[in-house]
Here is the input.
Amino acid sequence: MTAVPASITDGRALVDQAMRAAAERLDPSIRKVVAYHLGWTDEHGRPAAAGGKALRPALALLSGRAAGASYETALPGAVAVEFVHAFSLLHDDIMDGDRTRRHRPAAWTVFGPSAAILGGDALLALSEELLLDENTRGSHWAARALTAATQRLISGQSFDLGFERRDDVTLDECLTMAADKTGALLACSCSIGAMLGEGPTDLVTELTGFGSEMGLAFQLVDDLLGIWGSPDTTGKPVLSDLRARKKSLPVVFALNAGTPESARLAELYARPGPASEDDLREMARLVEAAGGRDWAAAEADRRIASAEKHLGDAGIDDHVRAEFRDIALFVTERDH
Amino acid sequence: MTAVPASITDGRALVDQAMRAAAERLDPSIRKVVAYHLGWTDEHGRPAAAGGKALRPALALLSGRAAGASYETALPGAVAVEFVHAFSLLHDDIMDGDRTRRHRPAAWTVFGPSAAILGGDALLALSEELLLDENTRGSHWAARALTAATQRLISGQSFDLGFERRDDVTLDECLTMAADKTGALLACSCSIGAMLGEGPTDLVTELTGFGSEMGLAFQLVDDLLGIWGSPDTTGKPVLSDLRARKKSLPVVFALNAGTPESARLAELYARPGPASEDDLREMARLVEAAGGRDWAAAEADRRIASAEKHLGDAGIDDHVRAEFRDIALFVTERDH
Here is the structure.
């Protein structure tokens, strides 16, 4: 397993501090839910350290550096993208009925769905508030881009919920969903610092492209891990995506591949009730035999190459480019 | 019953058109929920006409006129405040378990809670997007004010949910909750057009004060109607707030009045299980005997007077002032 890139660990403490300061603006009853969800406290409000890896803030800060902006200029963007990410996880866990998040009970199971709905709402509004605190052309640009990314995040989740009830999801639809649900906010994270720093439009465009492609690669790898990943790293039971009959990218590729294995996989996916361990192993074998595993791995590689191309075209200094590249490779690693 | 003021009916069609155009930006699966919730369609997607009275958009347009701004300048504000209002109702109905909204099944009962959560999220993001479409000082100001009002709306709802589990709610807390949950967005509605039109700060301040006081008066009257209103106008069963053991303003006044009736009311409110019709009638009598009804009526009058004072200090032309005043009197009428 590759070490966490320095650009993720370095800014972490400062971003964390800014996030906590921003959360002070929330009503205490809501802050309690948010602090738990962000891993700052346990369910009794006692200090904890269970946060995520804060990938999006690191990207936001890097994108500020890419535009030659100061750390302070990019910081509200770093906090805002992480808050939008937290908003979406809070609400998605309720909608998906997911009871576990980062090895802990999901916030809605601890505080109830109402508190989790409100916590998400408050984080969404707060993310905009932070960007609009400054009255600059850059903050307006960033706020505009963040609401657009949020809309795509919401569309992606809506699409995803619809997939569960359909047996005719195409690979294109599935890619669109992933681009909306995962790609849009990562693309915004990779460019928001440059917007706040009022960098050139071309730079913002290339960084957006980089983030978008990296986001798809990330989703493809996540989907591979959801079937073949070890429970130690994913924090989920083995074969969990198949257990949940999730229409992830490798599965949808396999379902649409037109092979005998595709037909058998469709049959198993359509069968009501929980699948046996034998069924789950067969499903995994079928996805692989129908080409889903190889396609997803190759597609992830293509997306990473495309992301690197955008990065090369962005015309940024070698250090910053190397750090962006390290993050892209780190989050799309398959063996961790 | 007084006729609906012309300023509410006049702009209605144009605001409606702008709202529909804005909703076109939403993903179809989400637009379906939003169109139903806003009364544009029935549960099968067929055209309907079941919307609310669009009070907030009328106030937003008026506030644009107060600042001498064009109709087009204030229009995004009119749509944005109505979308935030719609967002809050969509989410609140889920949290409160309210199955009826404007004489129809609430959206979450028709499309499910997940779709209603997403619909609300999308409306919240869209409201910001609409304001940020323009890159002006005024649109930045308006967007900032709307996110602040949204935070107060969320705090108010959180406070309100907490009230249900407490038997020691003070009148001050209850007034703060109402100011957050009802006052903040009305205050923003009454001033957002002036912000978009980049009117003077003093004007925005007075219009905000007007909306805030009108909002409290409106809540007081709504709470009176929730106990003594006729089901025909409220759209809810008689004595509905008491049935739901709601800690509304007249009730909280009565509970804190220190009279023998206060003690008996507290006893009835604390009793588990549904109340009998006799109990409900006794509760209403007790709220009145403990002074809750008279206090709420007098407090509403005081708030209306204070709202009028702000209006007088705003230095706006007589026509606009008269229209603001008509709306304030209309929404705080007790006999409709």
In short: Chain A touches chain B at residues 25-27, 29-30, 87, 91, 94-95, 113-115, 117-118, 120-122, 124-126, 128-129, 132-133, 135, 137, 139-140, 143-144, 147-148, 150-151, 154-155, 157-159, 161-162 (CB under 8 Å).
